[in-house]
Amino acid sequence: MSKKLKSNLEVALIYLFLAFMAVIIGYPLLWTVGMSLNPGTSLYSAQLIPDNWSLVHYKWLFTDPSSDYLTWYKNSVLVAIANAFFSVVLTSFVAYAFSRYKFTGRKYGLYAFLLLQMFPVIMGMVAIYVMLNMIGLLDSLVGLTLIYIGGQIPFNAWLVKGYFDTIPKELDEAARIDGAGHLSVFFKIMLPLAKPILGVVALFNFMAPFVDFLLPRIILRNPENFTLALGLFNFISNQFDNNFTRFAAGSILIAVPIALVYLFSQRYLISGLTAGGTKG
Domain ABC transmembrane type-1 spans what residues (predicted)? Predict the structure, then answer.
């Protein structure tokens, strides 16, 4: 087999694989969009391309007095912004300490970060529920946000620490010779150079409250405190509910804030993801 033929076959296989993955990913998305435009509410009567498409479900989500969709949307956005901001702040300090300082327990702390990533979140749900109940933060967005922030620290800190390790320590030393303190080095040198990885952390933590269902399901009880994933679940979970098309419309709108954040931070994502894993 000639090299040219072999190369053409490899390219063809790559394109076939990409086309297959596009169908796997795109088909459910097209069905969701199509369902949201169907005028009825039944899943079984919905069509991929409706004959008489309508925006009635989107209108219902925003205008009907019985819909709490706007409240759920507001809750999700608030939790997402708080989660992204405080996760970036805490992760930056933790990663900076592990990357630049030598202290007792540093090695075992890094091992602990790796170990904590091995266990699924569901293993700690009972403890989380009991803890939030003891401190009076059960069924509150504050409690949910605190769990999100704390639960992401091991993974985020390890990721950002790997990126900090790629920044030459000579920059720190030069700044200290010029009289810069620890905080000056952190804010004026490390953070500006770490924008790519911090953008990745911010995006991942912003997305979590929009797509996570399990944690809000355990913590939240009042419908006014629901996030989008939990609120939309109620459209199809009750015994006599059959609002699959409304569920589809609400699901489509979840992508709007995530897409906007992605568009603003996309220039950081590729370099951040690749550089964060170069050193451990």
Answer: 73-265
Cα-based angle 139, 155, 231 (whole degrees, multiple of 5)? 30
Helix, strand, or coil (residue 207): helix
Residue whose token pair is 């409706």: 50
Q: What is the pTM of this model?
A: 0.83
CB-based contact 235:155 (threshold 8 Å): no
Q: What angle do CA 219, 204, 187 make, to 5 degrees?
A: 110
Domains of the chain with CATH codes: 68-279 (1.10.3720.10)
Q: What pLDDT digit, counting tens, does each position of 148-180 carry?
A: 998 888 889 988 998 898 888 888 888 888 888
- Helical packing angle, 244-275 and 141-164, nearest 10°: 30
CB 213 within 8 A of CB 247: no
Residue in the block written with tokens 């979140």: 121
Averaged pLDDT of the chain: 84
Among 276, 116, 139, CA closest to 195: 276
**Residues with pLDDT less than 50, the chain:** 240, 276-280
CB 226 within 8 A of CB 208: no
Q: Give the Cβ contact number of residue 47 at 10 Å.
A: 14
CA of 185: how far to CAs of 90, 100, 170, 188, in Å? 17, 11, 11, 5
Buried b (16+ CB within 10 A) or exposed e, 95-114: bbbbbbeeeeeeeeebeebe
Q: What is residue 145's predicted lDDT score, i.e. its pLDDT?
A: 94
What is the DSSP-derived secondary structure letter of residue 104? T
Cα(245)–Cα(28) distance, integer angstroms: 14
Confidence (pLDDT) at 273: 52
